[in-house]
Write a structure and sequence with these properties.
Helix 20 runs antiparallel to helix 28. The protein is of the alpha/beta class. Strand 12 and strand 13 form a beta hairpin. It has 28 helices and 22 strands. The termini are far apart. Strands 7-6-5-8-9-10-11 form a 7-stranded mixed beta sheet, sandwiched between helices. 41% of the residues lie in helices and 15% in strands.
Length: 759
């Protein structure tokens, strides 16, 4: 067995070289002792002297060897080359190197900076102190600052050690794995410029050492913040602002550089005001996923690159954390160094955000064509003329009593409270000749999910059920002519009204119509009482051919979670499904929600901040296209997964048959069950994508869906059929989850009545 001895702890932690000047007798004696350790000796003092005398005599063009030796001899003034300058020992590599001493070393090493940096500017920079926290991106910044000698002192803070996964952007060798990042950076700087003062903070930057980091040995002149710790991002800026120290941040994406001139603007808001309301104490210890909403707020969700957005959606799914590339890190080193130099030389005075996006600057002139979304918006909205024209083709044979204005308004308000996919509200009403015409306005419902209008028909069935219940409450009886026009399915139904001839049931549900709500509130899983389950099953079966199944075993919920969220993922990843969801359906602001009066307010989704942030990122169609191509997007399954697992049970409404009428009639059963559930304080949330996407993705004639999507959907459908045990003759109509949870704080809005009811 081979035994390997490690370096001593002192050698492992050392980062400062040892200097031996042979003009000093004590140093000479110490060097002789050092030589007993058999160091690797590198003596290039002669070539360095060549460089030195050439830099001092720039007018002599290409001096020959004889001239150089003459100039060197004059410069040495009799001092032997071996004793000139300084010998420097690096404990971590056991190397002994002979070099010019500090003043001449700096003169020669920075000679090629002239006159991008003048000698006077270089001398000024040599007096500056720069602190860097975060030594992944920060290592490149520190090394570039050192190479250009933009300062005379660097303070480096990071608590982390190098791991193999860091080496995609951390410039070091595998022999340094497990070593503090601060020590790695400090050693490399010492090997570039042993006279550059470096202080390290191996436990990172924190409250206990922040004062010494910023002020010990003199205040920093510039602070570079490139760390992952959100609390430190904020706390360190407060300290920098207090001390009037400017801050630079590189984000390692799209070449974004952030500058805060607290030296010139001591009252400037932290992070340009983007950190307002963030408490460092509350964001400590967050997971990478939990950090995302705060990071996005600070760097701007809309401004990050497509691939970073896609990657953030995969954090803690297919990747551990957000990515960083060596090319971006090195670019960040260059940008930060350039701006730091000009800032310290009083040549740059502004705060702000700046982008050097290489993909935009050096990109394909021929852009990748984007999908044409014009066809995804559906036909134009039906207007009053359209409604009148369609209604006049209906041969009105039946008679109806006239409804008073309050009666009509109450009935249509109840109708409009019906559920619809994405709260699209795809209906219009025309009251003409005492008949109520109900129209399907495809402008609102046209979507990937509404395959062959089947989802819409479920909503219209729920609407007809609402009308029936409210009409009965008004002592009216409704006669329905469903799909009355063979050649125009836009006319869903024509209703006539008569006085109620018999006692109505279900009147206990009438008050619930206005309060019926989709409830996504999370709650501890609690099983439903037996009488509640029986009541729901019975009211579902009160619709002819309808059947309600309830699944409450934990293993069933786990399987449903995989199936239903898997379908949701496919919908979000599909280009049109993404457009329907993020452009047409979701409402991200209160103003947008109130302006449209439809769609889904994200505040009703009962999502964690990180999940809402993910939705904000997912608005970018290019990012989703990338995930679609990669067959990723597992993070989308999280949106509904927890809710399914916390359900009291999963409900499935099915019908005997697969016609449009079956879906419409099934919708009546869904609405009865939903109202009864809410009447009993049971939460109800639809999760029916599998019903409407199943045939869509598996349709052999439809080439819009790739083989991967079809195979995924086929597998999910087989699992769905197995767990539900549906007979071949029965068609799944609607899937939902039931739970016992508090009422939601926010409800979806409805468009005003005057935009739905016409006379």
């Amino acid at each position: 067995m081979l035994l390997l001895e490690n370096f001593s702890t002192e050698e492992n932690l050392s980062y400062q070289p040892i200097f031996y000047r042979l003009q000093i007798q004590e140093d000479k004696e110490k060097l002789l002792e050092q030589l007993k350790t058999n160091p690797q000796i590198h003596d290039q003092i002669s070539t360095q002297l060549d460089d030195l005398v050439k830099s001092k005599n720039p007018t002599i063009k290409k001096p020959g060897r004889e001239k150089l030796d003459e100039l060197k001899s004059q410069h040495l003034g009799g001092t032997p080359e071996q004793e000139y300058g300084v010998w420097i020992y690096y404990p971590w590599s056991n190397k002994l190197i002979h070099t010019l001493d500090e003043e001449e070393f700096i003169e020669v090493r920075t000679n090629r900076n002239r006159y991008k940096i003048t000698r006077e500017e270089q001398q000024l920079l040599n007096t500056k102190k720069i602190g860097i926290v975060g030594l992944s991106v920060g290592q490149s910044i520190a090394l570039t600052l050192a190479m250009e000698r933009t300062c005379g002192e660097l303070r480096l803070a990071d608590y982390d050690t190098a791991e193999l996964s860091n080496l995609n952007r951390l410039r070091t060798g595998i022999q340094n794995l497990g070593l503090n990042k601060t020590i790695i950076a400090a050693r490399e700087i010492a090997e570039i410029d042993p006279f550059l003062k470096v202080s390290i903070f191996n436990d990172g930057l924190h409250k206990g050492n922040m004062d010494s980091f910023f002020t010990e040995g003199g205040n920093l002149d510039l602070f570079v913040e490139v760390c992952d710790g959100l609390d430190i991002k904020i706390e360190s800026r407060f300290k920098a602002r207090e001390l009037k120290i400017p801050v630079i941040m590189d984000t390692n994406d799209r070449g974004m550089l952030d500058v805060e001139r607290f030296d010139l603007e001591p009252e400037r808001p932290i992070l340009h005001g983007l950190a307002d309301g963030l408490d460092p104490e509350n964001i400590k210890g967050l997971t990478n996923e939990e950090k995302i909403p705060f990071v996005l707020k600070m760097i701007g969700a809309e401004s990050i690159s497509t691939r970073l957005k896609a990657s953030m959606l995969e954090v803690e799914q297919s990747i551990n954390t957000w990515p960083q590339l060596a090319s971006s890190v090195v670019l960040g080193g260059a940008l930060t160094t350039d701006v730091s130099r000009r800032l310290l030389l009083d040549q740059f005075h502004d705060s702000g955000r700046y982008y050097i996006d290489l993909e935009e600057i050096v990109g394909n002139k021929q852009k990748t064509p984007k999908p044409d979304t014009a066809d995804w918006d559906g036909p134009a909205e039906l207007n009053l003329t359209d409604l009148e024209t369609i209604s006049k083709t209906y041969p009105a044979a039946q008679k109806s009593i006239a409804l008073s204005a309050p009666q009509l308004e109450q009935i249509v308000k109840a109708a409009a409270q019906a559920p619809s996919g994405g709260n699209a509200q795809p209906w219009k009403f025309l009251y003409r000749n005492n008949l109520l015409y109900i129209f399907h306005d495809l402008h609102f419902s046209y979507s990937l999910l509404d395959y062959k209008n089947l989802g819409t028909y479920v909503g219209f069935g729920a609407m007809l059920e609402n009308i029936s219940i409210i009409a009965n409450q008004l002592d009216l009886e409704v006669t329905e002519d469903i799909f009355p026009l063979k050649d125009d399915p836009r006319l869903i139904a024509v209703l006539s009204f008569d006085p109620l001839k018999s006692t109505a049931d279900l009147l206990h549900l009438a008050p619930i119509i206005g309060t019926r709500v989709t409830n996504r509130t999370a709650a501890e899983r609690t099983l439903l009482a037996t009488d509640d389950k029986e009541a729901l099953i019975n009211i579902g079966s009160s619709i002819p051919q309808a059947k309600l199944q309830l699944f409450e075993k934990e293993e069933d919920l786990v399987e449903f979670a995989e199936i239903l969220t898997g379908v949701e993922r496919l919908r979000f990843l599909h280009p049109r499904g993404h457009y329907d969801t993020f452009i047409k359906e979701l409402r991200f602001t209160k103003e947008e929600t109130e302006r449209t009066g439809d769609g889904m307010d994200v505040s009703t989704l009962n999502m964690k901040p990180s999940e809402i942030a993910a939705l904000q990122i997912a608005k970018d169609a290019d990012a989703i296209h990338f995930l679609h191509q990669m067959e990723k997007g597992q993070g989308f399954k999280k949106i509904s997964r927890a809710g399914v697992l916390q359900s009291s049970c999963i409900g499935l409404v099915s019908m005997e048959g697969h016609s449009d009428s079956n879906f419409l009639t099934g919708g009546r059963a869904v609405e009865r069950i939903w109202l009864e559930a809410n009447y009993r304080d049971i939460s109800f949330q639809p999760i029916s994508q599998i019903v409407f996407l199943n045939e869509l993705f598996l349709g052999a004639a439809d080439s819009a869906y790739n083989p991967y999507e079809k195979q995924e959907m086929k597998t999910l459908n087989e699992r769905f059929k197995k767990i539900t045990g549906l007979e071949d003759s029965r068609q799944a109509i609607f899937v939902f989850r039931l739970a016992l949870a508090e009422a939601p704080a926010t409800r979806s809005l409805r468009r005003p009545l005057n935009k739905q009811l016409f006379y």
